[in-house]
Amino acid sequence: MNETREHTVAATDSPDPSVTEHVRRYLATDGEDGYREGGTTNLVLTTVGRTSGLRRRTGVFFGRDGDRYVLVASGSVPGAPTPPNWYRNLLAHPEAEVQVRAERFTVRAREVHGQEYERLWRKVTHEAPVYHHYARVTRYGIPIVVLERMGEAS
Questions:
Q1: Alpha-carbon gap, residue 85 to 127, rounded angstroms
Q2: Alpha helix (H) ranges present in the chain?
Q3: For the segment 73-106, what is each residue's pLDDT rounded down to a tens digit?
């Protein structure tokens, strides 16, 4: 990925200390420590804050659908009243940065609906059945976002 001013500005980590610690381990080891955590694969997602305009960084579980990365916007706390901030940031600013292990690249996010949602929901709940629990206790319909690569990987 080409370096731009946007990519050199430091990112603010999650307010959740366990997520911040996980992301810092992941980044320090290029994912050797943290890629597989919580029973599934993880990536580091850097979004642009929807109101602040600042770069926000967090760790997110992901699945794959071909070359796309699939994110379930359930949040880390079952029963949370709203979707996670990273999801709301992506709705406002769909271009984001991702690190998967040592590879860093830019993506464009898109929320899925209809038949595509149903297919991906079956896929992610097969791979991570815990999402069924989140769906039972969450107050909103759990969104699914796909990330598609933009430009060249570094």
A1: 24
A2: 5-8, 17-28, 85-92, 114-127, 130-137
A3: 998 777 788 899 999 999 999 999 999 999 999 9
